[in-house]
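Recap from last week: sequence in, structure out.
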Amino acid sequence: MTETTRTAVIAVGGNALSPPGEHSTIADQFRHSRASLGPIVDLALDGWRVVIVHGNGPQVGDELVRNEKARNEVSPLPLGVLVAETAGWIGYMLQQSLENALRKAGSARDVVTILTQVEVSPDDPALREPKKFIGHALSAARARELRAEGRPVKKDAKGNLRRVVGSPKPLAIHELSTIRALVERNALVIACGGGGVPVYNDPVLGLEGIDAVIDKDLAAAVLARELGADLFMILTDVDAVYSGWGTEQQKMISSMTAAEAERLGAEGAFGEGSMAPKVAAAADYVRHTKGRAIITELSKGRAAVQGIGGTEIIP
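Predicted structure tokens:
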């Protein structure tokens, strides 16, 4: 297999553009996107075909706040539409930032954003049990207000009060053939933004949207599997996966099999925060494809691909 036929699907969290604790303006998010995409540009320059999946947790949470503030002036938008909205403007930021970096490096490769619908089951139990965190940390007073309005709020792994919404399991990528065609033309593709817009097949109406948010790592794993990608990489805000995270017994895991990852996950070794679904997504991809899956800090992505640092999940 030549370098130019290797395909990588890379999942990047929404926090890369809007870090925790910072209420980022659009200018801030453009600045963060330009500063954070170096490892992805490096992979593209190394000859990889690249598909980028980004999160939207902070951004869609902000959009819900805007909805609530303006609801007396304009009709609020449903959550599924807000997912599509954020996928559009985050995709625009990433697309522009990547193209500028590639042109500066002398590469003429195209960059394109695909607004992606991801098929889910309307009967998914996760739609009745909201657990997916979105938005920034809330004050205790604001959390009480939201709960009084019937909007669920929970504490995340860091003890912050945040909104939670339904997050159904992704089953299929509706625009897969279009994404594959663009990848085969050597374009860098931004797809499944925010985990993709959740939809289901209605027997009468056809595709219909659902007000929910899909986990972007799980959606990226499905996309990587269906594309037959050689590499699935999750870029996050920690350098590797740790067992016993946040305790005196925490230990870095440099490598584990998919079976070990599933066993440790079932034992609660990764906590209930965002790392557990990342490990589950990576293990699912490896189990189905026998490809490489890596979880590491965004700035260390290229080194991890070369076998230096991060956590690799192997068949």
